[in-house]
Design goal:
The protein is 60% helix and 15% strand. By secondary structure, the protein is an alpha+beta fold. It has a three-stranded antiparallel beta sheet. A three-stranded mixed beta sheet has the order 2-6-3, with no helix packed on it.
Length: 199
């Protein structure tokens, strides 16, 4: 292979010299000779060497093209992977903060379930409800969504069952009662819904 390259280089120099002689520089009023005219004086061996060099150049260009496409695909895969990891880190960071706010939301919701009936207590309950709505709106703005539970088939990824209940409205295995709402951020479950399942 080494000797073939050396022979090819020497022959290439001879062919280049021949082509330069056959194709004089253009001057004013002279017409440029065509490349095919310059090839007329080549021997078959020189022509074959030119063909070989052309094929080698094409093969090398194809290798570079393949390498470029592979590198581009690797770069695009890396970019996607970094984006996915960045989103996961963001969700994890938000998730740890959000869990504390979910507990506050639960406490406010429990307080609203035991609403005072007197006129004096109504203003207090309205204030609690306003705070509860604000907390839930802020969580929603961060991408926190409640997990659909009632009437859904029990899914251990999203629901935590603490018992079964007889309920003709639901098929066996469907969530019949939600004791505490579940929440997720993106695909990550922050807290499963605490439920009772129809027997």
């Amino acid at each position: 292979m080494k000797y073939l390259k050396m022979a090819s280089r020497l022959s290439h120099q001879k062919v280049t010299l021949h082509l330069r002689r056959a194709m004089p520089p253009r001057g004013e009023g002279t017409e440029s000779p065509s490349f095919s005219d310059a090839l007329v004086g080549l021997t078959q061996e020189e022509y074959d060497l030119l063909q070989l060099e052309l094929e080698n150049a094409r093969a090398e260009a194809q290798i570079h093209r393949d390498n470029y496409q592979r590198a581009l695909a690797d770069y695009q895969n890396l970019k996607r992977r970094v984006e996915v990891e960045r989103n996961e880190m963001h969700q994890t960071a938000i998730g740890s903060v959000v869990k504390g706010f979910l507990e506050i939301g639960d406490d406010l919701e429990r307080a609203l379930k035991n609403r005072p009936t007197s006129d004096a207590g109504k203003a207090w309950a309205d204030g609690i409800e306003l705070v509860f709505r604000k907390v839930m709106n802020k969580l929603e703005a961060q991408g926190v969504k409640s997990i659909e539970a009632e009437g859904q088939m029990f899914d251990p990824h999203f629901h935590e069952a603490i018992g079964e209940v007889e309920d003709d409205r639901y098929e066996s295995g469907q969530v019949a009662e939600v004791l505490a709402p579940g929440y997720r951020i993106g695909e990550r479950v922050l807290r499963p819904a605490i439920v009772r399942v129809a027997a």
